């Protein structure tokens, strides 16, 4: 009888994966990042254990968007006070805070639990081609 082996937290081996966003479609890249953070690409995937890898995204503002999303898509924030709703377009977010944009998109694809909050901490986003995690990345 074959029994499915469940992974344990101390048996998980995490890798460092570097993804270059230059010239890639934003949505497809973010979907791939969510899969890597969750660990669904590994044969030892267990839904209730964080078995994903660390992901480093470089050249974040150079991703491609289709259509007129850059001008039309808006992100809203609300502090909780009356009349405090603020909005920014995708273009403004990409220019000023690309790290926030990527984390917001990936967070929507992860579980909305403590497990999802620990997974999103393994995502590192950088605007240029340099990152301080070169020692961890295996070549």
UniProtKB/TrEMBL annotation:
Which InterPro entries is this protein grouped with?
A: Ribosomal_uL13, Ribosomal_uL13_bac-type, Ribosomal_uL13_CS, Ribosomal_uL13_sf
Q: What cellular-component terms does GO give this entry?
A: cytosolic large ribosomal subunit
Reply yes or no: does the keyword Ribosomal protein apply.
Answer: yes
Q: What GO molecular functions are on record for this protein? A: mRNA binding; structural constituent of ribosome
Q: Which residues form a coiled coil?
A: none
One of its GO biological process terms is: negative regulation of translation
Span-the-membrane segments of this chain are none
Q: Which UniProt keywords apply?
A: Ribonucleoprotein, Ribosomal protein
Q: How does it assemble?
A: Part of the 50S ribosomal subunit.
Q: Function, please? A: This protein is one of the early assembly proteins of the 50S ribosomal subunit, although it is not seen to bind rRNA by itself. It is important during the early stages of 50S assembly.
In the record, the note on similarity to other proteins reads: Belongs to the universal ribosomal protein uL13 family.
Listed HAMAP family = Ribosomal_uL13
Q: In its UniProt entry, what is this protein called?
A: Large ribosomal subunit protein uL13
């Amino acid at each position: 009888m074959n029994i499915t082996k469940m992974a344990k937290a101390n048996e998980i081996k995490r890798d460092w994966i570097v993804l270059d966003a230059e010239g890639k479609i934003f949505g497809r890249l973010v979907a791939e990042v969510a899969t890597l953070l969750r660990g669904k690409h590994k044969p030892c995937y267990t839904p209730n254990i964080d078995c994903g890898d660390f992901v480093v995204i470089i050249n974040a503002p150079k991703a491609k968007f289709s259509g007129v999303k850059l001008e039309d898509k808006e992100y809203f924030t609300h502090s909780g006070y009356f009349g405090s709703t603020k909005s920014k377009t995708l273009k403004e977010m990409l220019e000023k805070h690309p790290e926030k944009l990527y984390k917001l998109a990936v967070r929507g694809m992860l579980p909305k639990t403590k497990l999802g909050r620990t997974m999103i901490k393994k995502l590192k986003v950088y605007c240029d081609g340099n990152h301080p995690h070169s020692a961890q990345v295996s070549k």
